[in-house]
Amino acid sequence: SPPDGDTISDLIGEAAPNKEKPAQSGQALALSDEQFLRLFDSISNARWKLAVGLIGVFGLRGVELHYARAHRNHLHISYGKRTAKGSTEPRDVPLLDPVSRPGLGRQLLTALRSGIVELPPLGRTEGAASGAISTFLRRNNVWMEFKADAKSIGERVSVYSLRHCFADRCAMASPAIPPKAAAVAMGHSLQVHLQTYQKQHDRLRIKEAFANANKSNYKAAVAQ
Prior knowledge:
By secondary structure, this protein is mostly helical. It contains nine helices and five strands.
């Protein structure tokens, strides 16, 4: 068996705090709904606009576009991801629009169901599909702006940032979507959801809580 993480760290050491991270290291940041909509609106190619819209509104993995079937009020995904712990089951992803763009999910479902707009060519594996989407997005100025902004603070955005966007939307809905329900809709375990997606959202809520507290203190000081 390999040594545990602490032993490995003792053997190979740790990177200096100011060392630039590898391109794919660390968890990708979630796009906010505002960022997602700005990216979506900047895409003129109808096929890619549909693909990026479906991923961001329904929280898909890129490869799942091959396995997506539109219904009136949900998107059915027949894809089952196999991992060392088993495989995910086919699932239905209900509508959950960005607050500032009601009806977007239904528009995307209608476009997919009609077949008038075809999805762009994507590889059949998860890596190939993500690579194709990433290659397209690198030609988009808004996307490259997001990547540059993330890099400036030692973070990164990737195709998965669109999937993370859906997870944050679930957590920030009013009332919030329970983590178990969000995990089922995204096709992963509750443990993965809490350790990966919810953790990132919790950090965001901590920052928001302190920002709101500072605003309240400022208003109170002005009132005096």
